[in-house]
Amino acid sequence: MPSYTIGAGELAARYRTDHADRHKRIVNALHKSALQGEAIVAQDTPVDTARTKNAWHVVRLPDGADLLNDSPVAVILEVGSRPHWPPFLPILQWAARKFGTAGGKRSFESLSEVDPGLYAIAKGVQKKIAEEGTEPHWMVKKNLPRLRAIAKRNIEQALK
Questions:
Q1: 39, 36, 60, 20: which is closest to 152 by C-alpha?
Q2: Residue 27: what pLDDT?
Q3: All residues at 6 or more sequence positions from 97 whose CB lies less than 8 Å from its CB, including other chains
Q4: What is the rounded distance in angstroms from the CA atom of residue 37 to the CA atom of residue 18?
Q5: What are the domain boundaries of the chain?
Q6: What is the three-class DSSP state of 108?
């Protein structure tokens, strides 16, 4: 390890310079880790329309980075929900995408076009959510050990 001889007056300036360099390397390592984590949590995000999966993004901060998802349903997918009576139309639209409507169409103009079987599926899903809520997917929580290991490895590499 190299050694340096500096005068007492230079010590504070030298410390600030060294500290700033270390801080910059750590921040860059955290940003790199968040970008790697983005791919990991996106891979574990359930896909219907892919809006939530594609909503993951990284924001650089002065002291690191945030891994965010701006989708309105991301939190519900992560932690699940308590029993509640959800709106019917989004469930019906999901069922149409998943199972198709009468004639094999994946969308509909009015409720009169909706196959009765599809309508019954959507009503059943709505009732189940009203009685039981929804299960969590833990896209982030289940990956935290892996994300921490990535951040640790990146920081250690940056400080070598």
A1: 36
A2: 96
A3: 48, 49, 106, 107
A4: 28
A5: 8-76+136-159, 81-132
A6: coil
Torsion over CA: 151, 153, 158, 160 (sign): positive
- Give SS3 for 70: coil
Question: Among positive and negative, which fits the CA dihedral 30, 36, 40, 46?
Answer: positive
The Cα–Cα gap between 146 and 40 comes to 9
Q: How far apart are CA 57 and CA 40, in angstroms?
A: 12
CA distance 32 to 157: 12
What per-residue confidence (pLDDT) applies to 111?
A: 72
CA distance 146 to 127: 36
pLDDT per residue as tens digits for the range 68-102 = 999 999 999 999 999 999 999 889 988 888 887 65
Residues 6+ apart with CB under 8 A from 158: 25, 26, 28, 29
List pLDDT tens digits, range 36-47: 999 999 999 999
| Residue 20 and residue 123 in contact, taking contact as beta carbons nearer than 8 Å | no
Partnered with residue 67 across adjacent β-strands are 58
Does residue 156 carry a pLDDT above 80? yes
* Strand partners of residue 81: 134
pLDDT at 6: 67
